[in-house]
Amino acid sequence: MPFVTSSEIKYSVSLTQKSSEKNKWLVFILVAFAVFMSTLDSSIVNVALPAIMDDFRVSMRVIEWVVVIYLLTVSSLLLPFGRLSDIKGRRWVYCRGFCIFSAGSFFCGIADSATWLIVARAFQGVGAAMLMACSPALVVDIFPAKERGKALGIMGTVVAAGLTAGPALGGFLIKAFSWSAIFFINIPIGITAGTAAFFLLKGGKGDISRKENFDWIGAVLLTITLVSFFLAFIKALDWGITSSLIWMLAALSGLSGILLVFLELRSKNPVFDPSLLKIRKFALPVISALILFASLFIIVFLMPFYLVNPRGFSYDQAGYTMAIPFLCLFFLSPLSGSLSDRIGTRFLCTMGMVILTASLFFLSKLSASSSFLSISWPLILAGVGTAIFLPPNSSVVMSVLPDNLRGVASGTVATARNIGMIAGVALAGLIFNTVFSIKSGGEVFKTYVYEIEPFFMAAFKHSMIAGAVVSALGVIVTFVRGSDKKRL
Question: What is the DSSP-derived secondary structure letter of residue 206?
């Protein structure tokens, strides 16, 4: 056996550490691509909705499903895919997620009808759920505990970058090409990242020492509960609140939800543990996050229609304008997170929700001829309020549970965020279309013409006021969760 000096051993160890460090950051870049792509897609589509509605000549009641079906699919499958990745392995779920998301983007881009696009968006949402479910877990897997905070902080910046770039890039692509381009742009990114994931991520099996079974019953019940509830909510205007179909869907949602809780409390490997909701400082911040995103997405969903139609902005101008709140999120989130470490989270989260409430109130005062300044500063308020709220709120959720449940906490927050987005779009669509129909004598908003401006603005105003009411409820929920000690 040849003699090996201590210097050679140290050199070998150094090379191994450098290799591990390099691979760690390569995996992080891969995760960042997935997070950027999925967040970009969630914000880029909203700017295109007026163009898609005009192209397919359908009403807003139909076109809102382009957003809702994607978010609903992600919300229903996020927790199940998170559990599946624990059992089958991150690589198994992640690589397939890139393939499905890229294929879904292709089918969205070639859609020649609203129905085709909605179905393709659901398919795309399956891939997005697979990517979103694995991304936080991959960061936790590859980084030691002392570096996870830094890595998750950088990932938060990536999320903000995706949300910021989405509206601006969407407006540019629509003006330069067509709305189809916002989907085609995902394909080369998805294929490249999927190929990299196949070679970078090690193994394909989960933690076989635990021999856990996937909770298929829980996953199906969760999907039935969410889909039936939001279908009843969104279709209430079309079918009538007294319709037997509406009440059947509501009953189905309630029964499946009760059965879900009953079974999950007794399951050895639940897709979600309802007992976590008994923890006050976990449950109330999660509910607060849901309310915040519901309020925020009333703005995100309706503002492009206002900017393009009565206000008369071009698609690129509308996109740049819609990037304003997310720019605030990009720059202020790190400051808010750092400040919460010094003064606590309750005050910051409450103030963030108050500022968002003010934003919605001032947006309800806009007219068809409002100046860019009058439009932009309430949007700045929305971004500031969201940036002040999110980092401290996430910190509370992630710190109140033990280390072995942080994956569950991350998945729950992501699910609540997506459910809030769905609720915001559904509520905005319901109130806008109801008020528009009443004011116009039973008409449905399909194509904007000058004659319907009073009806549009009345519907827009009522929707923003409703958002302010929802956000005000969030102020109460955020405040009553209890105080936290000042951390110096």
Answer: -
147 neighbors 294 (Cβ within 8 angstroms): no
Q: Among 58, 50, 42, which Cα is nearest to 315's?
A: 50
Calpha distance 456→401 (Å, rounded):
46
Alpha carbon distances (Å) from 9 to 3, 4, 18, 292, 461 = 11, 7, 14, 55, 71
Using CA atoms, how far residue 397 sits from 9, 222, 400, 414, 435, in Å, is 44, 22, 6, 11, 38
Burial (CB count <10 Å: 0-12, 13-18, 19+), residue 199: exposed
- pLDDT for position 209: 42
Give the 3-state secondary structure of residue 21: helix
**pLDDT (tens digit per residue) in 466-481:** 999 999 999 999 988 7
Q: Are 218 and 274 in contact (CB under 8 A)?
A: no
Query: CB–CB of 43/163 below 8 Å?
Result: yes
Q: Which amino acid is at 55?
A: D
Element housing 291 (H / E): helix 280-308
Burial 53-88 (b: 16+ CB within 10 A, else e): bbbbebbbbbbbbbbbbbbbbbbbbbbbbbbbbbbb
Give residues with Cβ within 8 angstroms of 5, minimum separation 6: none
Q: Which residues of 318-353 are buried (b: 16+ CB within 10 A; e: fewer)?
A: bbbbbbbbbbbbbebbbebbebbeeebbbbbbbbbb
Phi-psi region of 2 (alpha: psi -120 to 50; beta: other; left: phi over 0): beta
What is the predicted pLDDT for the residue at 385?
92
Farthest-apart Cα atoms in the chain, separation = 93
Nearest residue to 366 via CA among 382, 388, 350: 382
Task: Give me 357's structure tokens.
Answer: 């409430």
Tokens of 156: 């938060």
- Model confidence at 216: pLDDT above 70: yes
- Per-residue model confidence (pLDDT) at position 130: 86
